[in-house]
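Box 3.1 A note on notation
Throughout this textbook, protein chains are presented in two layers. The first layer is the amino acid sequence; the second is a token string describing backbone geometry. Keep the layers aligned when reading.
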Amino acid sequence: MHKLLNIPFLILTFSLIIGIVFGYYTSVNIRSVSMYLTISFIGLAISWWYAKKPFHSSNAFSVFVIITFIFFGIILVQIHHPKNDPNHYTNLSTNEYQATPVTIRFYIKERLKPTSYYEKYVITLQSIENKKVIGYLLLQIPKKNLETPLTTGESYLTYSKIQSISKPLNPNQFDYAHYLSQQYIFHKVTIGFNQLICTKASVISIYRIAAFIRNDINQKLARYHFTQKQLSIINALLLGQRQNIDSETFADYRDAGAIHILAVSGLHVGILLIILNLILNPLNRFRKNGKIIKTFIIILLLWCFAVIAGLSPSVLRAVTMFSFIAIGMHIRSKTSIYNALIVSMFILLCLRPLLLFSVGFQLSYLAVFAIVWIQPSIAKLYRPKFYIDKVLWETFTVTIAAQLGLLPLTLFYFHQFPLLFFIANLVIIPVLGIILGFGILVIILAEVKILPNWIASTFGNCINAMNYVVHWVSKQETFLVTHISFSWRMLLIGYILIISLIFAFKKFNLRRIVVFIVSIILLLFNLMYEKQQNNEKEELIVFHNQRNTTLGMLQNQSLTIYSKDSISTMSKNFLLNGYLIENNSRFTANKKLNNVYSYKEKTMLVIDSIGIYNIKELHPDVVILTNSPKIHLNRVIETLQPKQIIADGSNYRSYLDKWELTCKQKKIPFHRTDKKGAYIFK
């Protein structure tokens, strides 16, 4: 592998990644970093001049190259961060726009996947209170108020508050605000459709043109009796849009380990490259510039496809990488996919440094790298004699290689693993090229209005057959392992183990076997360490739950819940799943909520809607207010003299505001879960 790999460029890319990580997780001044970058450039120039002299080492030059690109990564993060632009809306002279409604002019950048209640969009700001600004916001419109989706690129006016995006209020829940911040979206606007005024001033952009093309394709396809489910799959496979896939179908593909089929990525772009290569092959016959013209057309069509597919991180990565592969295929005699991967990664990170933290970006690169590095070694284990046997074996080895490369990262992010993943992939991937080619033909024929109904019906049946296979695999619940606790330590050790295993498999020698055994021992030690840590962890949690007061007590990896009413399965999953997975614990019982608790020498009194608190000879350390009790908090404080007051999400907001003010006057710590999240007693 090292003979094919451009090692200096690999070092530059890793230095850039280190700089991006450092720049993202630390607060650095852009002027200071610019000064350090200038100094490192000077050092780089001096060391390069010194290294050119005979008998002088180039080690200093190598060190300065690494330092320079680390600083370059740091400054890239700062340059791309919109808050460093004085015209960004967060840099207005006042933040009153968050407290009072303001006039906002914007246009629709892209449509996001809707929730059960809201249609969601990313909007690009044009002005606030007639002052020109830049920046993105999340726009939420209740579904009941919106009959048809808003048009990408359409400009609107509204009068509304700009609100912060809510942080998770219970431990280990998905942080949607953090996820959006990596896309430079920091606030949201929630309005009804009747609050929007279309300005008739559309903004021409790549996203608008792509949306127009997708809408036109969908309008043409809608004439051919495709079902809503079939259209949603066609949009995902061929147009890169998954917004309209229903939750049940999405869950089927996820649980079957085939979710990558619905996300346009390297698999789809690679197949498209093969199809385009075959179609344009006659251009090779032209002696003069035939290959150059063919390569140019292929790259142009690949990028047209990327634009139509929405320029998602996976599409950007795949099209950039396969553009380099196309150049290598048709201009040079040999190409290294490793170099294509590294160059495409370097370019993308220079253009959009926070792509590094995108889960899809990470999974895409790891999958392709794993296939290229691992699959040839597995494929050598068996030499098929027949064509069908060869196709099935190649598909199986590609799937195994990709899953092996993604396994630690998948467990770290998603905490589940479908054991039958290879069945869905073994059936679908060999025919996916046919489905994609068939789909492109259907779209072209529909666009020119000559698509026969029998071809449309046949393609729809192919989609139904693929959905059926995926649905069947996903329902084999015995083979779906869920709620897997996988820490960052396990992630690192997991990749050390896999890499050492592959090295030992490729070349069997004593040193590599020792490294593999040491990595297994390291894994076992970490498992024992984490088990001991989880066993020793004890805490009591006051969860934020708007409808039901919920306390949890964790002991010996067992969580007991105390609640006013019984907890539904949906509420239990929402409140507890992330917490249970993080602590490698199990839910044991749901008991009735008591009025008094004793925990680690602390006494806690729960005051509910009945408002009874004058319990004889009880002086609680903590008072927990639930279900909006009609009490005089001053009197409660004077009577019980607590050291801490906690109010959960079951209380009215007006009560919480009043209690917060009282506690501030009395100088008693007050914790309200609707603002500060769940309270945890360690």
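The chain has five domains: 7-80, 89-203, 212-481, 488-536, 539-681. The chain has 21 helices and 20 strands.
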